[in-house]
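Q&A log
Question type: sequence-to-structure
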Amino acid sequence: MQYDVICAGMALVDSIIRGLDPEPVSASGYLAESGSLSVGGEAVNTAVAAAKLGLKTGILCALGDDPAGEMVRNELTRNGVDTRFIVKSPATPVSTIIVRADGTRKSVTNQAHRYSFHPEGDPGLFTDARVLILGSLFRAPFDDPVGIHAVLTCAKAAGQIVIADTKLPNFRFLTLKDIAESLPLIDTITPNEDEARYFTGKEEPEAMADAFLALGVKRVIVKLGGKGCQLKSAEQTLRLPAIPIDPVDATGAGDNFVAGFASEILRGASEAEALRFANACGAICTSAVGAGTALRGRDQVLQLLKSAEENGC
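Response status: OK
Response body:
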C-alpha cells in the first residue's frame, strides 16, 4: 500500500485563548493571557503527528477555499502530509478554544462544523494505507450509520487496520446502538474518559472498556488525561499512569496519542510498548499551546520515555 496511515475526519482552525479573566474590563471586553491561531481538527492533528513520527501519511478531510482552509493546507504540506485526498467544502470550520490554567479546555463551534462529505462514495480516498484512522467517530463525516458502515466495510475488505478515535456528538446524536453493526469492524477504539462514560453509561474505565468489547470492538483504549490510560482486549488489561510533565494546553493530546499508538503498532511493537509510546506522545503535546506545536519527532518521544524510566516513572 502507498501509505502507512490515512487520517479521515474533521479539519479546522482553532482560535486558542489562554488565561481568560472572567471579569470584564469594560462593557464589551475581556482580558486574556494570550490568544493564538492554530490548525486543528482530529484528522489534521493526528495526521501531522503521524508524519512527524516518520509515517507516510495522507489525510481525507474537507476544507473551504478560504483563508482558514489555506492555513490548514499549508500546515499539512509543511509537515509532510499528503493532501491529495482533501475535498472541497463551502467553508472551513473555525473553533474558539478557551484553555484553563490546568490545561483543560472548552470549545465553541459554528455551523461550518455541519459541513460534511461522503467518503463512502469513493473508497479509493481511504483504502490505500495500512491503517485507517477515523479521527472523529460520531461527528461529521462519521455521524451517519450507513456511511460509517460503508467506509469500515471497504476498509476491512482492503485489509486495513481500523482505529477509531471518538468525539462527543454535536449536531447529530448517535449512540453505540445506532452503529452496532459497525463496531465489530473496528480494531481499536480510543475514547477519552468523558466520551467513554457518555457512550457506555459506565463510571469505571474497565467497565467502559467491557461495554465496547461486548459490542465487538477488538481493543479499547480509554484515555484518562492526567490519570494516564487503560487498554483492554480479550487477552489483557494494561493500565499506565500519566508521564509527569507540566501541562500548558491539552488540545490535541488525544490525537497525538492515537498517532503514537499507530506508529508503534505498525513498527511491530507489543501493545504495552505501543501504549507507553502513545502515552509519551500525548504528554509531549500538552507542553505547548496548540495541537501540533510540541511534538517534533520519534527521537524526542524515545528520549522522554528513557528519562521517565530513569526517574522510575
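Response note: The CA atoms of residues 48 and 79 lie 6 Å apart.
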